[in-house]
C-alpha cells in the first residue's frame, strides 16, 4: 500500500461540491439493515463531485449529472455542475483529468463537458458496462448509453486511462480498484493541504458504513463490497487519512464551508 507522493508542490486544495440531495432511510439504503437490530432513521443523502486543484491544475473526481433532465431516484437539484464549477472559477475545458469512481449516472452524467481532460476509469468498470451497452442490456440499470458515450469519445481520442491496480495517477493522488458497488469502483487517496483524504465516493456512501462496515443495498458483488469497506479502514489506519464518505450530508458539518457564495454548496476538505 503506497502513500501518495508529495510531488514538487504542496498538497491539493480538495473541495466537495454538492449538486443535489434527498432524504432516505437507513433501512432503504443499507443492505440487510434489519439484521443489525438498530432503530431505523433518516439519512440526509447529498450528491457531490470533488475538485482537486494545485498550481493551476484542476482535477475532478466524478462529475454529477443533470438532475432537471432526468429524475432517477427523486433527487432534488441544488446547483448544477456547471454552476458549481463557475462558483470556483473553473472552466470545464481547463480541467486536466477526471477520475470516474464508477459509471453510474450520478457520477459521470456531465462527463461530456470535459473534452480536454484525461479520463481515468477502472478497467473492470469499462469492461462490464461496455459489454452491457454492446448487448443492448442497459435497460433498468443506473447507466445509460448517453453517459457512456463520452467515455468512448475519450478512448477514441487517446484520453482514456484504464486502471487495474493501485496507481498513482498524479503525484499526490492514488486510486485503488476495490469493486463491490460496481465492478470497477475506484477509491481515491489524495494528499490535501492539511493531510491525506480518502475520497470514498460509492465505496462508502455513509459514515455508518465506515464505522460498522455495513454494505450498501446496491452492489454487483457483496463480498467485494465488504472487502472494500475493510480496505478503506485499513488504508485509513495505515496512512492516517481521514475518510470522506461519498453521499453523507454530515460531511458538511465536519469540515469548513468555503467562504462567500460558494459556501452554499462547497465544502473544504483540505
Describe this entry's structure for a reader:
The chain is of the alpha/beta class and 270 residues long. The chain has eight helices and 13 strands. It has helices at residues 26-29, 81-87, 105-108, 123-134, 145-156, 207-212, 222-239, 251-254; strands at 13-25, 42-54, 57-61, 76-77, 97-99, 118-122, 160-163, 167-170, 173-177, 186-192, 195-201, 242-245, 266-268. Strands 1, 2, 3, 4, 5, 6, 7 and 13 form an eight-stranded mixed β-sheet that branches. A five-stranded mixed β-sheet has the order 8-9-10-11-12, with helices on one face. Strand 10 and strand 11 form a beta hairpin.
Write the layout of secondary structure elements.
Elements: E1 13-25, H1 26-29, E2 42-54, E3 57-61, E4 76-77, H2 81-87, E5 97-99, H3 105-108, E6 118-122, H4 123-134, H5 145-156, E7 160-163, E8 167-170, E9 173-177, E10 186-192, E11 195-201, H6 207-212, H7 222-239, E12 242-245, H8 251-254, E13 266-268
Parallel strand pairs: 3-5, 5-6, 6-7, 11-12
Antiparallel strand pairs: 1-2, 1-4, 1-13, 2-3, 8-9, 9-10, 10-11
Indicate the percent of residues in helices.
10-25%
* Gyration radius, rounded: 17 Å
Name the overall outline: globular
Task: Quote the beta fraction.
Answer: 25-35%
Unreliable spans: none
Number of helices in the DSSP assignment: 8
Cα(first) to Cα(last) distance is 22 Å
Amino acid at each position: 500500500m503506497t502513500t501518495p507522493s508529495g510531488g514538487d508542490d504542496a498538497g491539493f486544495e480538495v473541495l466537495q461540491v454538492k449538486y443535489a440531495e434527498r432524504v432516505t432511510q437507513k433501512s432503504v439504503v443499507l443492505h440487510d439493515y434489519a439484521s443489525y437490530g438498530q432503530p431505523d432513521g433518516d439519512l440526509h443523502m447529498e450528491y457531490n463531485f470533488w475538485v482537486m486543484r494545485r498550481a493551476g491544475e484542476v482535477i475532478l473526481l466524478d462529475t454529477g449529472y443533470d438532475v432537471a433532465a432526468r429524475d432517477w431516484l427523486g433527487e432534488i437539484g441544488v446547483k448544477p455542475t456547471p454552476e458549481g464549477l463557475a462558483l470556483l472559477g473553473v472552466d470545464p475545458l481547463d480541467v486536466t483529468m477526471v477520475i470516474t469512481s464508477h459509471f453510474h449516472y450520478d457520477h459521470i452524467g456531465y462527463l461530456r463537458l470535459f473534452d480536454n481532460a484525461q479520463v481515468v476509469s477502472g478497467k473492470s468498470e469499462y469492461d462490464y458496462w461496455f459489454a452491457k451497452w454492446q448487448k443492448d442490456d442497459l435497460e433498468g440499470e443506473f447507466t445509460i448509453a448517453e453517459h457512456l458515450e463520452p467515455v468512448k469519445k475519450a478512448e477514441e481520442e487517446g484520453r482514456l486511462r484504464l486502471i487495474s491496480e493501485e496507481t498513482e495517477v498524479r503525484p499526490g493522488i492514488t486510486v485503488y480498484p476495490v469493486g463491490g458497488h460496481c465492478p470497477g469502483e475506484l477509491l481515491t487517496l489524495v494528499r490535501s493541504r492539511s493531510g491525506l483524504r480518502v475520497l470514498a465516493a460509492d465505496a462508502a456512501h455513509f459514515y455508518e458504513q465506515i464505522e460498522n462496515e455495513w454494505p450498501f443495498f446496491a452492489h454487483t458483488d457483496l463480498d467485494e463490497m465488504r472487502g472494500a469497506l475493510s480496505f478503506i479502514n485499513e488504508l485509513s489506519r495505515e496512512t492516517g487519512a481521514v475518510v470522506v464518505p461519498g453521499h453523507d450530508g454530515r460531511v458538511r458539518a465536519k469540515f469548513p464551508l468555503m467562504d462567500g457564495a460558494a459556501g452554499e454548496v462547497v465544502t473544504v476538505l483540505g
